[in-house]
């Protein structure tokens, strides 16, 4: 595998970024997977477990397990849905909101390190190209 191959570079970038985030959020007593759920809920409070799974790219059993632990730790609370009482809506507690804000800061810090001395113009071009790559990959899924 050569470092010039796109799939390898994507894997390497994800691994390095994820390792930094997991290490730093671990100091906040968060397990892998919980930070992205907290970030997701910060933007979309009251969503369902299914929506969390889709938005965080996690399978149903993983979401269930992570949310149970997060509920035990006082980060989230569940409420039965109004339309369908069998479906729970997930909300951040005050502790969860504070922790989610900390996660957001940690992730922004890792992003800033990754950008390093890359100019704003280079960042913009990269993100435009990267979004096109993602669209191409999504089209390939269908």
Automatic annotation (TrEMBL):
- Residue span, HTH marR-type domain: 3-135
Q: Does the keyword DNA-binding apply?
A: yes
- List, alphabetically, the SMART domains matched: HTH_MARR
The keyword Repeat is annotated on this UniProt entry? no
InterPro entries cross-referenced by the UniProt entry: HTH_MarR-typ (IPR000835), Tscrpt_reg_MarR-type_CS (IPR023187), WH-like_DNA-bd_sf (IPR036388), WH_DNA-bd_sf (IPR036390)
> Which UniProt keywords are given for this protein, alphabetically ordered?
DNA-binding, Transcription, Transcription regulation
PANTHER family this protein is in?
TRANSCRIPTIONAL REGULATOR, MARR, TRANSCRIPTIONAL REPRESSOR OF EMRAB OPERON
The protein's name in its UniProt record: MarR family transcriptional regulator
Source organism: Sellimonas caecigallum
């Amino acid at each position: 595998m050569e470092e010039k191959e796109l799939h390898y570079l994507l894997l390497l970038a994800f691994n390095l970024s994820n390792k930094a985030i997991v290490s730093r959020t671990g100091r906040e007593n968060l397990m892998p997977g919980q930070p992205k759920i907290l970030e997701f809920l910060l933007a979309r409070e009251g969503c369902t477990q299914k929506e969390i799974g889709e938005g965080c790219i996690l399978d149903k059993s993983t979401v269930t397990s992570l949310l149970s632990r997060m509920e035990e730790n006082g980060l989230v609370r569940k409420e039965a849905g109004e339309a369908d009482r069998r479906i729970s809506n997930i909300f951040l507690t005050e502790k969860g909101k504070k922790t989610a804000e900390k996660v957001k800061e940690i992730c922004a810090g890792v992003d800033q390190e990754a950008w390093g001395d890359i100019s704003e113009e280079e960042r913009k071009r990269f993100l435009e190209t990267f979004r096109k790559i993602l669209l191409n990959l999504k089209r390939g899924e269908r």
